[in-house]
Amino acid sequence: MPDAAPRRPARALPGLHRAPVMWRLPLGVLAGTQAIWLFWWAAFHPGLISYDSVMYTWQVTTGNWTSDHSVLYDALVWVTLHLPGRFALLTLLQTTAMSAALAYACVAMRDLGVRARWSVPAALAVAALPPTGTVVVFVWKDVPFYICAVLVFAATARLVAGRKRPRLSGRRGLRPGSVRFDLAVLTVGLLGLGLFRNNGLGLALLASAALVIALPGQRIKLGSLTAATVLIPLVAQLWLYPALGVKQPPSDSVFALNYSDVAVAYQQAPSLFSPADIAVLERVAPLSTWQQGANCHSADLLTNSWAPFDHAAAERYSGQLMGLWTKVLKQRPDVIVGARICRGHIAWAPTSDRGAAGATTQLPYLGTPADLWGWASPASTGDPKAGRISPNGKMAGSPYLPDFATHPLSTTAHKAALWLNNLFRVPQLDWLFWRGATWCYLIYAALACYAIGRRRPAVYALAGLLVGQQLTVLAANPVESYRYVAAPLFIGPFCLGLIAARRESSGTAPVPAPENRSDLHREHPDRNGNRAAGTAATRAPQSVRL
């Protein structure tokens, strides 16, 4: 029988066959995820709003810039408020940036041997599922933080895979595919972690430290990069922002978690408190408020509730209150550590504790109240004695109030988006869709399977980002909000593909995707030294099959 004609690989992404082979996967993922996010964007146009969104707007439109939130994101809000589209433009740019980050992650997974048949559905699922799809259209500093986390993860994977990946000729400078490009992406991601979230410095440090350990040949370069990406946000927070007139957050905001530790200690070890110590507590809030704040799951029950709590007095007596905290730490460190572990429950526990107050997973609110959480209400409605931080109508009469209203481009899409979000809020599946800790453990298991099965321990560097996420939230966390540990929800689906990743042939390294289609038709010598033209079916490496 005559030999059958060589079979051409099926095109999983029609319409991209004219693009260079190395660009088909990222362009296809970019287009697919962007199309899905356009649905979310149209459904919640111009974007979803939170309490923090209104605060950002008030700060940048009234000159009350403070560094309690991300100053960089405040600047982005200020810029978009002066451009056509305003919030709609900002949220649209967020969806595009996340789509590009997911496309880059798919390329990184391909370098580790994960076929597109696994990575592409993972990227599409991240865009389609409400826990990750909806949050990207929020006006929230957490969104660029998640984008930077995906970039750090993908750049780390590229650098780890590059240890056994031969360099392509012509891949020099900052062109995509070069090591310098991956280092540049890593730098941008690490800087973003520290600039978009105040506790992101610890995460960036641990993520880069894991990479330094995994790549001994690049320790000097990576160490210098780590130092720069950690020092720049630190210098900005301590010196640059104050020099530009940005106010530092008040002490009662900085030490709110310490005050909650004191409340827990007052309940569990009251013998530590002398009459003078109790007098200090009463100057700030009644003892009943301190007893209410003894719930270790939520710091807001003490400093941000309807119970009386004098924030001005807390700032005046911050030195004495911190002295109490230091006293408890020296005599009963177990109480402090236990309170932090309890409050960081969202970081390490796959399930929430529905039997305890404040221990359930806090999910984002998709509606916008008429008074904008008090920002647009009359000033007299705020209770000055309540500990709850009330804006007392600071945005009343603002010309930017219409920008907070939801104007969906499609009523049908809006109803469908709300229905999908309600569907995914079923309590029994909270552990799977909303708990980042669950995905952290799944990622660790997938990395272990890949590292042991393929004898590539360097891949454990990918866990540095997740370990940093868990430890930083465990060390300092106010409430059990899902968004504090949401980065693993974006990364986890990609890591599951590592379990089914291709194995390398004995003594050979994985071949990178060719730079363009002409690479598939170059002449290759046979065993006798004769040169024969290769074909796309017979010479193309497996990594280019989509």
TrEMBL record:
- Region listing for Disordered, in residue ranges: 507-546
Which residues does UniProt call coiled coil? none
Q: Which UniProt keywords apply?
A: Membrane, Transmembrane, Transmembrane helix
Q: Where is the composition biased (Basic and acidic residues)?
A: 516-529
In Swiss-Prot or TrEMBL terms, this protein is called: Dolichyl-phosphate-mannose-protein mannosyltransferase
Q: Where is the composition biased (Low complexity)?
A: 530-540
TM region(s), chain numbering: 21-43, 87-106, 118-137, 143-161, 431-452
